[in-house]
TrEMBL record:
<keyword id="KW-0285">Flavoprotein</keyword>
<keyword id="KW-0288">FMN</keyword>
<dbReference type="InterPro" id="IPR004136">
    <property type="entry name" value="NMO"/>
</dbReference>
<protein>
    <submittedName>
        <fullName>Nitronate monooxygenase</fullName>
    </submittedName>
</protein>
<keyword id="KW-0503">Monooxygenase</keyword>
<dbReference type="Pfam" id="PF03060">
    <property type="entry name" value="NMO"/>
</dbReference>
<dbReference type="InterPro" id="IPR013785">
    <property type="entry name" value="Aldolase_TIM"/>
</dbReference>
<dbReference type="GO" id="GO:0018580">
    <property type="term" value="F:nitronate monooxygenase activity"/>
</dbReference>
<keyword id="KW-0560">Oxidoreductase</keyword>
Length: 323
């Protein structure tokens, strides 16, 4: 399969593994890139600079193209990870969720291509005006943080019809059928997160991998309660999609109560902090999208990439429909 994405980054499979803070370090990025797709490191708002330097070394050691994903709102508070990326010069940086513009020219000046995620049409227009190289159309069914406004397929159609920048589709793409669908629609590739969370190369804790494998299509929920209770200052429009668990069942819809900081809210914060240490998926956030229902086992990133590459069979079958 050859698309703008494969040509630009010398890939054999038109897939980018999404930057996932806490899940996608250098090992996952290197494994994905070794398999012919483009692997990305996810940098969180509390990532340690030494940790990032090490992940960059691990990814770069693979001598394949790789990328790093940053969060714009977090860079506005602390530009350190952005400066590290400018120094490392990966093949691709993604900067999403907040004020992307200040970073576009510096990245370009250092030869780094810029991708950014758009969760609605206006955001896609703004990113095109800023001069980003890739717009990642991210639908509401996607895992982790983002907008909860429009599903991937309607947003993809609208963006492809209205922007001239190469587009990748994100949110809910977990199998070759999904990749074939978005390529047939005109995307240059897919940006896939959840499907890589259960790879042995990922940093997802073991119980979270078990929970994702066990989850079905209906087992996710969207909201801000984990951010509020952990005091992570995500802008309110970017909630997170995670697996439902006992914590989300108890606190969904009670955001004001958590924000008010009652004794119960403080206890809830302690409960989440302890659960993260213990790997207790009843109370810890397990970020994943609806495609968690498509993840059937823990398996190496190379197998996930190879399965996605079977999209070409569906594309051939689709081509036969028109003779
Ligand atoms: C566990 C997890 C962590 C994520 N962390 C980040 C992140 O640090 N930065 C980012 O830009 N996107 C992050 N995302 C969102 C992804 O970039 C992407 O939008 C999403 O995974 C696509 O949907 P999918 O999960 O259905 O494939 C994360 C997603 C997941 C599942």
């Amino acid at each position: 399969m050859r698309t703008w994405l494969t040509e630009q980054f010398d890939l054999t499979v038109p897939v980018v593994s999404a930057p996932m803070a806490g899940v996608a370090g250098g090992r996952l990025a290197a494994a994905v890139s070794a398999a012919g797709a483009l692997g990305m490191i996810g940098v969180g708002s509390k990532s340690d600079p030494a940790w990032l330097d090490h992940q960059i070394d691990v990814a770069a050691a693979g001598e394949k193209p790789y990328g790093i994903g940053l969060m714009a709102w977090s860079l506005s508070r602390d530009a350190t990870p952005g400066m590290a990326v400018l120094k490392a010069r990966p093949d691709l940086v993604s900067i999403s969720f907040g004020d992307v513009e200040p970073w576009v020219a510096p990245m370009h000046d250092n030869g780094v291509a810029v991708a950014a995620q758009a969760g609605n049409l206006l955001e896609a227009f703004a990113l095109e005006d800023m001069g980003v190289d890739i717009i990642v159309v991210r639908g509401a069914e996607g895992g982790g943080h983002g907008r909860n406004e429009v599903a991937t397929l309607p947003l993809l159609q609208a963006v492809l019809d209205n922007v001239d920048v190469p587009v990748l589709a994100a949110g809910g793409i977990g199998t070759a059928r999904g990749l074939a669908a978005v390529l047939a629609a005109g995307a240059a590739g897919a940006w896939v997160g959840t499907a890589f969370t259960c790879c042995p190369e990922a940093d997802t804790f073991a119980a979270a991998q078990d929970a994702i494998v066990a989850a079905d299509l209906h087992d996710t929920t969207y909201g801000r309660i984990f951010d509020i209770v952990q005091h992570v200052p995500w802008p309110a429009e970017f909630g997170g999609r995670s697996l439902r668990n006992e914590f989300t069942a108890a606190w969904a819809g009670r955001e004001h109560e958590l924000e008010a900081g009652s004794a119960a809210a403080l206890a809830a914060g302690d409960q989440v902090a302890a659960a993260k240490v213990l790997g207790d998926t009843r109370y810890a956030p397990v970020y994943a999208g609806q495609s968690a229902g498509l993840v059937q086992s823990r398996r190496p990133a190379a197998e996930v990439v190879a399965d996605l590459a079977c999209a070409q069979e569906y594309l051939r079958a689709a081509a036969a429909l028109v003779g």
